[in-house]
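Human: Not sure, check this?
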Amino acid sequence: MEISTTTEVTTYFEGDMLYSAMLHEIKRAQYEILLESYIFTSDTIGRKFIDALNEKASQNLAIRLHFDAVGSNYFQHGLSLRKKLDRRIEVKWFHRWNWRRPLQFNIRNHRKLL
């Protein structure tokens, strides 16, 4: 297996261009997909990502997702989102509410990394 050592970072300022580029890169992925996002829901765009990620999971790619519990509305959509994703896809939730650490609840970022 040959893994590229080239590092390229692209900054986007328009959501449509960003999502299109991200979906393109997911389709091109050959070994693994690492995705971090503040907002991820099963709306129209989210379903496109779910379909693309499930397709790659069926090809046995390692897929790890990291979603913000507030931005992705964990309490309302988290379990239903998990059911829509292939069971081989690893999902972690960033900063769910914890009574023992209430001040950490507002430590958030709004980035989308792929």
In short: Strands lie at 32-37, 62-68, 90-94, 112-113. The chain has a mean pLDDT of 83. The chain is about 35% helix and 20% strand. The two ends are 21 Å apart (CA to CA).
